[in-house]
Amino acid sequence: MTGLSRGVRLGVDVGQVRIGVSRSDPHGVLATPLVTLSRDQNPRSDAIPTDLVQVAALVAEHEAVEVVVGLPVNLAGKHGPAAEHVKAYSRQLADVIAPVPVTLTDERMSTVVASRRLAERGVRGKKQRAVVDQAAAVEILQSWLDAQRRRTE
User: Fold this and answer.
1) Which of 36, 46, 69, 99 is the residue whose CA sits 20 to 30 A from 127?
2) What pTM was computed for the model?
3) HEC secondary structure over 84-111
């Protein structure tokens, strides 16, 4: 793997209510679930939202070299309101964790795929809702890692 520098990467699935976070191994081979965070629904205008502070703490704790955020592009490849929301969140995150880079990656269908995989393993209902954001973050990061590997082979 010559093109991808060594180091842990975090994958982030930004939702309106929750944020799923995953992490890679230092070699960038495997993404695993890490945590689901609650979105700060009422941040003070003069304060950094608590969910951004928590993601920044995870970046520091895991010594992440990059954060990969899923961009919800619609099936036609267009950026709708959800994508604009994620782009704004990513800009805020980049400011908080600088100089660690934030990379946006197409996450079409990640939650659908994650939900299907969980259901195949017998995880349904409330249990699925509790972990689907982490599973989506794993899908986002794993797809990105695989694409980086394909580009450098």
Assistant:
1) 69
2) 0.87
3) HHHHHHHHHHHHHHCCCCEEEEECCCHH
How long a stretch of residues is the chain? 153
CA-based R_g, the chain, Å = 15
Cβ-based neighbour number of residue 17 at 10 Å? 9
- 32-41: long-range contacts, CB 8 A cutoff, minimum separation 24: 32/138, 33/131, 33/134, 33/135, 33/137, 33/138, 34/10, 34/58, 34/134, 34/137, 35/134, 36/130, 36/131, 36/133, 36/134, 39/15, 41/17
DSSP per-residue letters across 117-148: HHHHTT--HHHHHHHHHHHHHHHHHHHHHHHH
Asked if residue 136 lies in contact with residue 116, where contact means CB atoms within 8 angstroms, the answer is: no
Q: Which residues contact 49 (CB under 8 A, 6 or more apart)?
A: 39, 40, 43, 92
pLDDT tens string 20-48? 999 999 999 999 999 999 999 888 888 89
First-to-last C-alpha distance (Å) of the chain? 7
